[in-house]
Amino acid sequence: MSFFKNLFGKEEPSTTGTPVNFQEPGRSAQELTEQYAAWGLDKQHNLSEVIGDNPWNIDLDKGELSFGDNLSFPVQVLGTFSHSSETWLWAWANTGSNIPPQLLEQALQLKKHGEQYDIPMFKNQTFDAAVNDLHLIGMIASGIFNSSAYYAADYGQGILLVTLRSEIIDKADRSDAARITTVFPQIISFFEMNHLNAFKNYVERRGYTVSTRDNQVTAVKDGTTITATFDEVGRLTNLKA
After folding, report:
1. pLDDT tens per residue across span 25-63
2. Which residue, 147, 126, 150, is CA-closest to 136?
3. pTM attached to this predicted model
4. Which end of the chain has less neighbouring CB within 10 Å, N or C?
């Protein structure tokens, strides 16, 4: 999908000071999407600002993803997407690649969560997928583990998906109204979700105080007010700051 290609690449708590609501991860793909997708996409804007157009390179022995000569970040490996077969393969199931065990911790935790709550996307070794599924996994993972971002590294035959941590990326973070009102319409256009639930989760994670009256949600932070209105089934009808 063109937006992700343009924004995210040529195709262990974060240090950010932003208040985060560490609620229990959802028990379904739908709940996880509503909890973490918008926040995950928000983080990708930070990443894009930091890495610019620098080419990527990964050293799995060191567990580092680098961009150009001056940016290098520790990573966790989640899995790979094949362009030819259009399938996803979790890193913990990719025994032929000899991925160092210490880089599989997040992928294995997601597997455990998937087995506990019967979430096929997390518990199945491989499954038919689209590129959007890859990005959704990255967003959910970066939210659950409070990573700085995720990166979809396209190596021609497929895409390697990793999460990464960096104070540099965290320092690029912003939770102003312009960011909120840009990210949220984007995310609800990409994935199916209850817009009202997703918006409340998103702005709470960005440190806003939230109040709800009828179908209107008001988010307030540092003198800034964002108002979102929804229809009777929770779809966004108006968003303003």
Report:
1. 899 999 999 999 999 999 999 999 999 999 999 999 999
2. 150
3. 0.89
4. N
